[in-house]
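Handout, section B. The chain below has 55 residues.
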Amino acid sequence: MDSVLVEYDSDGRVRFDEEDWSTPSLQERRAILHAVQSEIERLQDLGLALDSDAD
């Protein structure tokens, strides 16, 4: 199941698309952290590609 994280707050609560605010379970926290790491890597690759095009 794919969920879209819409918002988060400083207390660690999250709101997924079409859902109410909740504290994520351990499994959800791990999935969020994995998605964050994957997105960071993709953005770093994009930055490198754009930077190499500027030369």
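Note. Strands lie at 5-8, 14-16, 21-22. Compare this with the example in section A.
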